[in-house]
Design goal:
The chain is α+β, with helices and mostly antiparallel strands. Helix content is about 45%, strand content about 10%. It contains 15 helices and seven strands. β2 and β3 form a beta hairpin. α5 packs antiparallel against α9, α5 packs antiparallel against α12 and α13 packs across α15. The C terminus is likely disordered. The structure holds a DNA duplex (13 and 12 nucleotides).
DNA sequence: GTCCAGGCCAGAC
DNA sequence: GTCTGGCCTGGA
């Protein structure tokens, strides 16, 4: 039997499943018809539902509550995080709007591969690629409400996928080579998943940047979403626009924006990035105006 | 048909 | 080190 329990804890004020999963960090989850969410971590899965001030947990037999507590970063007091950053312009609104956001602790290999796919790509295509990779090359790890759940392929499983399959079945486009190569480098231990945990953030960042398909933005996403390096500030186009418009009040390079985030948010930069990203997208900040025709 | 998206990379300066 | 253009794919 799977494990099931419900609880009402102080972290409930900062725990909104839709916000957690749709703020840009995760692609391996599903919203159920009843408003609950199902997600997978390695070979474990969980289904969660929030009702009022209670959360109902239902997870696979092979996992423990503590594991999911860690996955959802429940040991961090987000109220304190917000108190530290809300003095910065726009942060009061952003942290209020996305107050249920939490930064997930995701599997490093899956996160590396997923964010290589994410480069210059659309969310629906990223989600589909992750789902197809898991269904076709991962392992079936259970069934929930009539739907089979699959783990993301581990390095051994990933190495069995050909470049042709990556391009023509998973449809990752020109990212096929980078995925193929990176998968092999990780399997061979050239990039050491175990050792990575113990490296300093600058060292780990350098290691990640050596992987094909991993540039500054993707490396920062991996550092933040898989390695809990909360001081990093991934600068994508949305964050770039938000920072230029509301913080810098002028055009700035990626480097300038990154430096500004260090100065303003310090060790909480990663959290700030998530609030800004979610808020910026919601209100369409800096979105390019479509030129009317015939003008 | 045309444009471009939650960047990366190679080549040019 | 900084800047520019090209890139799979598919939905608007």
């Amino acid at each position: 039997m799977e494990n099931m329990f419900r609880e009402n804890k102080n972290w409930i004020d900062h725990f909104n499943l839709l916000e957690i999963f749709s703020c840009g960090q995760a692609f391996h989850w599903e919203e159920e018809k009843d408003g609950s969410f199902t997600t997978v971590y390695q070979d474990q899965w969980v289904n969660l539902k929030k009702e009022g001030d209670q959360v109902f947990w239902f997870f696979s037999e092979n996992s423990k509550k503590e594991m999911w507590y860690s996955y959802f970063d429940l040991g961090t007091d987000y109220k304190k995080v917000i108190e530290k950053i809300e003095a910065v312009p726009l942060m009061k609104e952003a942290t209020q709007y996305g107050r249920g956001i939490r930064i997930l602790k995701q599997d490093p290999f899956e996160t590396i591969m997923t964010f290589i796919i994410s480069a210059n790509n659309h969310i629906p295509r990223i989600t589909k690629a992750v789902k197809d990779l898991s269904r076709l090359y991962g392992r079936e790890i259970g069934e929930y409400r009539g739907r089979k759940l699959y783990s993301f392929p581990n390095p051994e499983e990933f190495a069995k996928i050909s470049m042709d399959e990556l391009r023509n079945i998973i449809k990752v486009g020109y990212r096929d080579k980078a995925l193929y190569e990176t998968g092999r480098r990780i399997l061979s231990g050239d990039y050491d998943l175990k050792k990575a945990e113990s490296l300093s953030t600058p060292e780990l960042r350098k290691e990640l940047l050596n992987l094909p398909g991993v540039g500054p933005k993707v490396a920062d996403c991996i550092l933040l979403f898989a390695y809990q390096r909360m001081e990093v500030f991934p600068v994508d186009v949305w964050i770039h626009r938000v920072m230029e418009e509301f913080i810098l009040k002028e055009k700035g390079s990626k480097k300038e924006i990154y430096q500004k985030s260090v100065e303003l948010f310090g060790k909480e930069a990663g959290y700030a990035q998530q609030y800004l990203f979610y808020y910026g997208r919601a209100i369409g900040i800096g979105k390019k105006e479509k030129k009317p025709k015939n003008m």
